[in-house]
Specification:
Arginine biosynthesis bifunctional protein ArgJ, Ubiquitin-like (UB roll), single chain, amino-acid biosynthesis, cytoplasm, L-amino peptidase D-ALA esterase/amidase, 407 residues, 2 domains
């Protein structure tokens, strides 16, 4: 597998465009379109929040139908959540605008929105935006990058990646883009993400691979404990790589799944490190656990604790906060088996050893925790499973950003 330049336009047959539709923002692009002329099999995962945005329900119907997908239209600024019938009408109007412009069925057009909850989308601006973008679709790397920037809200950087790998003697490409900075908490994939690939694969296997990979990538990040109403991950595969269609879980399926895992984990970590107001990527790796479920629970509890996040921000080696978060996680373990370390590019330091706190060099601990990526490493000594979760520190700026988000 090789990392290459680009994102959603890296795979054969995918084009993208973006525009300033002035949906909410007045000084930046705020709509993106990703399109494949060739029909795609599609897979998706969505928020587990009971309050689901209109676009989530629209996309769930498309994925469940088994019909081909040709396009996805994304807007930033307004989430189209808690918007009643008018919200569903906006989804349909957007999809039908694509049908008119690009001559594909509107039922093959997914839509996604991100931004303020409870505001109605200006349908006239959405339709006009689709008209503009349909005329500027481009398969260039730059067009994909521009699309990744258009879907940002409070994100400080765009997030994209692409890889190539061999399947059945053919060169296959998988690319993706995502957005997410706040309202990020493990429970599906708390953000928007769009993956494109030219692999040929049966829809059921594509869905199984996506659902499986999400568990240890997007489901293992948290910024603020809030599961969004709009969480959507869509993966489109148009088959243009020319490989023999993957119809079983053999070597080719595992190769694809490995690439998919790499791309999703990369994008997930980019979102965690770009958490609202964040200055550090906060990683928790828990090893030698009795079960995979407990490993996931423990690692997510560590990075999700506000006290732990504040300690990471303050570079305070207060290991009791991390142990406390493990203790209330719901996983059963014996604290007398636990070893806890702080790690970063600046070094490694054990601070707790099988039930007993260790004397340690505070200056060394401070040096380790001053790095821009800090890991809490925990050895449970109770089994063979492990899991890693990602989050960020909790800073003053998180409150500032969210105090005036709507205005």
């Amino acid at each position: 597998m090789n990392i290459i330049e680009g994102g959603v336009t890296a795979a054969k047959g995918f084009a993208a465009s973006s525009c300033e539709a002035n949906i909410k923002y007045k000084d930046r692009t705020d709509m993106a379109l990703v399109f494949s002329k060739e029909p795609c099999v599609c897979a998706g995962t969505f928020t587990t929040n009971v309050v689901k945005a209109a676009c989530v329900k629209w996309d769930q119907k498309i994925v469940k139908s088994g019909d081909a997908m040709h396009a996805v239209v994304i807007n930033s600024g307004i989430a189209n959540a808690c918007t009643g019938k008018e919200g569903f009408d906006a989804c349909e109007a957007t999809a039908k605008a694509v049908e008119e412009s690009l001559k594909v069925p509107y039922t093959s057009v997914a839509v996604a929105s991100t931004g303020v909850i409870g505001m109605q989308l200006p349908v006239d601006k959405l339709v006009a935006g689709v008209g503009m973008m349909s005329k500027t679709l481009d398969e260039s790397i730059g067009a994909g990058t521009d699309a990744s920037k258009a879907i940002m809200t409070t994100d400080t950087v765009n997030k994209e990646i692409a890889v190539t790998f061999d399947i059945d003697g053919k060169n296959v490409t998988l690319g993706g883009m995502s957005k997410g900075s706040g309202m990020i908490h493990p429970n599906m994939c708390t953000m928007l993400a769009f993956l494109t690939t030219d692999i040929s694969i049966e829809k059921s296997l594509l869905q199984e691979a996506v659902s499986s990979v999400v568990e240890d990538s997007f489901n293992m990040i948290t910024v603020d404990g809030d599961t969004s109403t709009n969480d959507t991950l869509l993966c489109m595969a148009n088959g243009l790589a020319g490989n023999s269609c993957i119809k079983d879980k053999g070597k080719d399926y595992e190769t694809f799944k490995e690439a998919l895992s790499f791309v999703c984990t990369f994008l997930a970590k980019k979102m965690a490190s770009d958490g609202e107001g964040a200055t550090k990527l906060f990683e928790a790796k828990v090893v030698n656990v009795k079960s995979k479920a407990d490993a996931r629970t423990l690692s997510r509890s560590i990075v999700g604790s506000n006290l732990s996040k504040a300690a990471i921000y303050g570079c305070d080696a207060n290991f009791g906060r991390f142990l406390c978060a493990m203790g209330y996680s719901g996983a059963d373990f014996d604290q007398n088996d636990v070893e806890l370390f702080f790690e970063s590019k600046n070094g490694r330091l054990e601070v707790f050893h099988k039930g007993t706190p260790l004397e340690f060099d505070e200056d060394k601990a401070l040096h380790i925790m001053k790095a821009d990526e800090v890991t809490v490493f925990v050895d449970m000594h109770e089994g063979n499973e492990e899991a890693t979760a990602w989050g960020c520190d909790l800073t003053y700026d998180y409150v500032k950003i969210n105090a005036d988000y709507r205005s």
